[in-house]
Amino acid sequence: MKKLSILMLAVSSTMVFAQKVSDYKYVSVPEKFETFKEDYGLKNFFIKALAGKKYIVLPVIKDNWPAEAKSNFCNVVNADVINDKNLFKNKVIVQFKDCNNNLIQESKGGSKIKEYEEGLQDAIKEALIKIPLSNPVAFLPASTNGQNTSPEPAVSVASTTTPEANSYSNGKLDLQKIQIDPNQFILAKSGSSVPFAAFKTTSKNSVFIVKLADGNTTIGYFENGGIVIDIPQADGRYSKEVFMAK
């Protein structure tokens, strides 16, 4: 029974962290789609289509990005359109990847229109039908992006800064810390199959994306041997909830 409960916790945590394109507000699009010989108006069409789904497409020059995007590249999803054409049909693959180049979503589209420009744009339109409207979660805090456009690799939660205790309390609620894998853990009530909070590593050491049981997404971090969660409030502010090791 205990093994079953832990398995349910692990499955639940995996579902919680099924990252979605809609979690993002900002999208980075390459200067050109490399798999096409010509532009065919695809980039402008793609950008307008994303704007119609409430995404903000960032300029190519990163110095012109908004502060929350420039300060942490993991607040940006990277999009690309790949030529998948065959002899009979204009076809494309639209891909969205996170800051660590992990594929978040891939969608295919095709068109029977034979003309390249019109047919490829029609294929992109079909592929984007499956892409949800932007419904962004809380932004990650600033990271040390430096001059390198590649984000730092995710840091294992098993680092020396990670508290070793398994039990934590805020004085009102007692929780168990359960390590799912090197990059994610959960806090849950003893015997519960539903996490109180599920944590996943980011590119910033000891800072985590946190999915709460009520569906809200926020951030958490280690501080003075405890685990801190920024709890969203109804007025848009955040309160600091501290769980100290027992």
Tell me what the structure shows.
The protein has helices spanning 2-16, 42-52, 67-70, 116-127; strands at 26-28, 56-58, 76-83, 90-97, 103-111, 167-169, 174-181, 184-188, 197-201, 207-212, 217-223, 226-232, 238-245. The protein is an alpha+beta fold and 246 residues long. The strands form two sheets. Strands 6-7-8-9-10-11-12-13 form an eight-stranded antiparallel β-barrel. A hairpin with a 6-residue loop joins β3 and β4. The chain is elongated. Residues 1-18 and 146-163 have low confidence and may be disordered.
**Main β sheet profile:** 8 strands, antiparallel, barrel
How would you name the oligomeric state of the polypeptide chains in this document? single chain
Radius of gyration: 21 Å
Amount of beta strand: 25-35%
The total of helices stands at: 4
* Distance between the ends: 25 Å
H/E element string? HEHEHEEEHEEEEEEEE
- Label the overall shape: elongated
Strand order in the sheet with the most strands: 6-7-8-9-10-11-12-13
Amount of helix: 10-25%
